[in-house]
Amino acid sequence: MRARHGQAPTTLVTAVRAGGRNRRAQTASAPATARRGGFLLSALLAGGLAAAGLGLHSAPTASAGATSVLEAQQALLTGDEALEVMPQASVTVAEAQARLQEVAASRAARAEAEAAAIEAARPKFVSPVDGARLTSGFGSRWGTFHYGIDLAAPMRTPEYAAGDGVVLRAGAASGFGLAVYILHENGDVTVYGHMDSILVEPGEYVDAGQTIALLGNRGQSTGPHLHFEVHRGGEDGERVNPVSWLADRGVRV
């Protein structure tokens, strides 16, 4: 067919138009392909769960995503099964019993050491009354001999065992109203008189500084005080000056 003057042949026009459409189609499809690639990466990172909703209609791609998730699940199951079949850490009964004995021995040794430290720090002798005033000493007094010392303090002031020992007697006593006798390890006996009330019983072991009575004014007394004596070698032994006896043991009155 002959082309008219100034008009392009029909075949040429058709080819040019077709070429333009093809270039536009290629240009438009390039971003879509890039976008699909990005979506595919996100879907795979998320486990392939959103592949169908992102326009991926390709059967091989969807199948690959499902396979990846399945493989991941199987890998987790395989890991759990591997943990279950691993041998459990343990010790023998004999080893456990040995450990128990070791701990018990360690605790006993520690308790013994602590008890020894407490015993070492504890005073072995004390003044029988804290803060008392010495009102009468050992020796002649009013035409007789005073075989002890008098320690004055307010009524019901605590009275203490001067040293460790065992209570020999506790109760009513002539001249003292009430009295307590304590036997010490060296055989000496200390005597406490005129108390208002007694807090120990015969046969009871007492530590130095333990409260044995409350100071009073019973018996032949001119005011609230403790009459304190020391009998060397036993209850019927020689009565010695309590001030010197206490001083020899580091106690001042």
List the helices and strands and how they pair.
Layout: H1 10-45, H2 59-85, H3 93-121, E1 133-136, E2 139-141, E3 144-146, E4 149-152, E5 158-160, E6 165-173, E7 177-184, E8 189-193, E9 197-198, E10 205-206, E11 211-214, E12 225-232, E13 238-240, H4 242-247
Antiparallel strand pairs: 1-4, 2-3, 4-12, 5-11, 6-7, 6-10, 7-8, 8-12, 9-11, 12-13
Largest beta-sheet details: 8 strands, antiparallel
Order of helices and strands: HHHEEEEEEEEEEEEEH
Specify the number of helices.
Answer: 4
Strand portion: 15-25%
Taking all Cα atoms into account, the compactness measure Rg is: 53 Å
User: For this structure, what is the CATH homologous superfamily of the largest domain?
Assistant: Glucose Permease (Domain IIA)
Question: Based on helices, strands and strand pairing, what is the structural class?
Answer: alpha+beta
Total strand segments: 13
CATH architecture of the largest domain: Distorted Sandwich
Shape label: elongated
How many domains? The number is 3
The overall average pLDDT, rounded, is: 80
Q: pLDDT under 50 segments (min length 5)?
A: 1-20, 22-60
Instruction: Bin the helical content.
Output: 25-40%
- CATH topology type of the largest domain: Glucose Permease (Domain IIA)
Which CATH class of the largest domain is shown?
Answer: Mainly Beta
What distance separates the N and C termini?
Answer: 149 Å
Kindly describe this structure.
This protein has 253 residues and is of the alpha+beta class. The protein has three domains: 76 residues, no CATH class; 32 residues; 115 residues, Glucose Permease (Domain IIA) (Distorted Sandwich), CATH 2.70.70.10. Helix content is 39%, strand content 23%. The chain has four helices and 13 strands. The strands form three sheets. Strands 1, 4, 6, 7, 8, 10, 12 and 13 form an eight-stranded antiparallel β-sheet that branches. A three-stranded antiparallel β-sheet has the order 5-11-9, with no helix packed on it. Strand 12 and strand 13 form a beta hairpin. It is elongated and about 120 Å long.
